[in-house]
Specification:
Shape: globular
Bound molecules: adenosine-5'-diphosphate
CATH class of the largest domain: Alpha Beta
CATH architecture of the largest domain: 3-Layer(aba) Sandwich
Number of helices: 13
Structural class: alpha+beta
Radius of gyration: 23 Å
Helix content: 25-40%
Strand content: 15-25%
Largest sheet: 8 strands, antiparallel
Distance between the termini: 27 Å
Number of strands: 19
């Protein structure tokens, strides 16, 4: 959708008048080249996943024109980034770095502060700088997508896998520093990164891990991608989900290719989930479940066909479970309430002995059924799922965005221990509040071992302001109620980052005060991504920016 924009454009950074902005932009164009600086003064186009905008959030939950940049800038080198950072300090203009800017459901390419200048790192800095077969690792620039890394690895002929999230168009680096997840044994992306290069808000450049020790004759350190911790305080963490630096290079471990077998198990009753999770825990901890498996509500079997909700249900209200189950009965999964997708790895003998245990344990849930990919028709979701679980990027997960017209999604993603009783509390909150605010509930548990990421996607018709309002109310209530029970989110959309960061308030907001101390020391002018992760620089604090 493209709506004519009102008022004088572009939207200015806070506290900057138009003549100063024009002077600043002219200077930036002069230094970087006219073609590498673009004003955000045209109609906003939401595009779609493959042609996403870098001007705002494709999946806007506020009005489309609320969270927008004033301009986009396209650095071609680390030096360009340093130049931009120094420029921002000179004019006190907020800058907001993105790698690819898809970041679906979490704010897309939008800056938190309207009128920020978006640094689109990915447009020109998009090379895989190294693939090392010996240490099974790579170094990527911000613009390398999962598809691109996959192709580059394939070209080398080395037996290595990448780990990809549900859709493969995002930035390997951007997703990792936002602590996204994938589904092979390397699914915890942040845990598998090794070494960063960062431009600090001062414009200085720094390397972390072994990269801080120069290699012989100025070469990169030979162990940069082999050892994460190196020496001294481990500082990598402060550059993830933060606004303390711009990451320009990142090392990432690749997984040695291995045999794999995906499978699917269905469970008949909605109330089965507590028992299922109790079975999952020891299997996950013992690594019998080889990857990060997903337990998905059966509504997703309907949605992932790419057919709209109206094909299944006439009402405007949330589709009732009986109706979902009645449709599932005629689908390959059969009548059920939950579908579990998992993969085992290793040589055939290992896989078979793991599968024996898995079958045996889950058969304790009355009415459960076990399937292999060959039991399912060619167009069934198990096939792309199996590819994702063996390191092949996919786009199929986008198909549930046909559920509604103008569909956008917003994720509520609390963490719980892998325990039935915790799962029940969170699931009950989510189910009740989705119903209250009129949304279908599409929950998935992604189990990594001791904890689970519970991902509940709210699907919104972007053209309906009331639906957007209700989605925000639903999110805010879920965050508050979950926090009261001790559950917090691992990642969130821009507009909920303040609220969620406040829930991590143990010790009279000790963690946030620590982050603010870092922010003020590293970024005294408060130019880098103010407000990201709820961290506001001194110049913005207590001036009404926090929401
Ligand atoms: P995606 O990989 O989904 O396209 P983005 O590139 O939008 O994701 O990155 C997600 C978020 O992470 C951004 O909104 C931004 O706040 C942050 N980010 C991305 N890349 C960098 C970077 N190189 N340095 C610092 N922060 C970044």
């Amino acid at each position: 959708a493209s709506v004519p924009r009102e008022g004088e454009l572009p939207v200015l950074p806070p506290g900057i008048d138009r003549p100063t902005f024009n002077t600043a932009i002219a200077e930036l164009k002069e230094t970087l080249g006219e073609e590498h600086v673009e004003l955000n003064d045209k109609p906003l186009v939401d595009g779609w996943y493959m042609e996403h905008p870098n001007t705002h959030d494709t999946f806007h939950v506020l009005e489309q024109s609320k969270l927008v940049s004033s301009a986009q800038v396209y650095p071609g080198s680390v030096e360009d980034i340093q130049t931009i950072v120094r420029w921002a300090n000179k004019y006190l203009i907020p800058i907001y770095p993105i790698s690819i800017g898809r970041n679906m459901g979490y704010g897309g390419a939008a800056p938190r502060v309207p009128g920020s200048v978006t640094i689109d790192l990915g447009r020109r800095m998009n090379k895989v700088l190294k693939i090392d077969g010996n240490s099974a690792s790579c170094i990527v620039e911000p613009g390398v997508t999962y598809f691109a890394l996959y192709e580059e690895v394939q070209k080398t002929g080395l037996p290595l896998w990448i780990d990809t999230p549900d859709v493969g168009g995002g930035s390997v680096l951007g997703n990792c520093i936002d602590r996204g997840v994938g589904y092979t044994p390397y699914g915890d992306h942040w845990a598998n990164h090794c070494g960063l290069e960062v431009v600090l808000p001062s414009g200085e450049i720094m390397r972390t891990g072994m990269g801080a020790l120069p290699g012989k004759n100025g070469a990169d350190n030979p162990s940069w991608q082999a050892f994460q911790h190196a020496y001294g305080p481990s500082v990598d963490g402060i550059f993830s989900q933060s606004n303390f630096g711009i990451v320009t290079k990142m090392g990432m471990w690749l997984m040695p290719a291995t045999g794999h077998q995906s499978y699917m198990i269905t469970f008949p009753e909605e109330d089965d989930f507590e028992q299922i999770i109790e079975i999952i825990r020891p299997l996950a901890l013992n690594r019998v479940l080889g990857n990060i498996p997903q337990l998905r509500s059966v509504i997703q079997e309907l949605a992932i066909t790419g057919r709209p909700k109206s094909d299944f249900y006439d009402g405007k209200d949330p589709i009732p479970m009986e109706v979902i189950k009645a449709h599932a009965k005629n689908m390959p999964c059969g009548e059920c309430a939950w579908v579990f997708y998992g993969t085992v790895y290793g040589p055939e003998e290992t896989r078979n002995s793991q599968l024996d245990i898995i079958r045996q344990e889950f058969s304790k849930v009355r009415g459960s059924k076990f399937f292999l990919p060959e039991d399912m028709p060619e167009d069934h979701y198990i096939h792309p799922r199996a590819r994702i679980c063996s390191g092949v990027p996919e786009l199929r997960e986008l198909d549930w965005l046909n559920w509604k017209p103008n569909c956008a999604h917003l994720a509520f993603s609390p963490i719980t221990p892998t325990r039935g009783q915790d799962a029940r509390i969170v699931h009950e909150i989510v189910t009740r509040l989705h119903k209250k605010w009129g949304f279908d509930s599409l929950p998935t548990w992604c189990v990594s071992g001791r904890e689970m990421h519970y991902i509940a996607e709210i699907l919104i018709d972007r053209s309906d302001p009331d639906e957007k309002r209700r989605a925000i109310c639903c999110m805010r209530e879920m965050i508050t109620e979950a926090a009261a029970e001790g559950y917090g989110e691992y990642r969130t959309h821009l507009i909920f980052q303040d609220q969620i960061s406040r829930t991590y308030g143990w010790g009279n907001q000790a963690l946030m005060r620590f982050n603010e101390t870092l922010k003020d020391a590293l970024d005294p002018n408060g130019i880098l991504a103010p407000g990201r992760a709820g961290i506001w620089p001194k110049s913005y604090r207590d001036k009404g920016w926090e929401i």
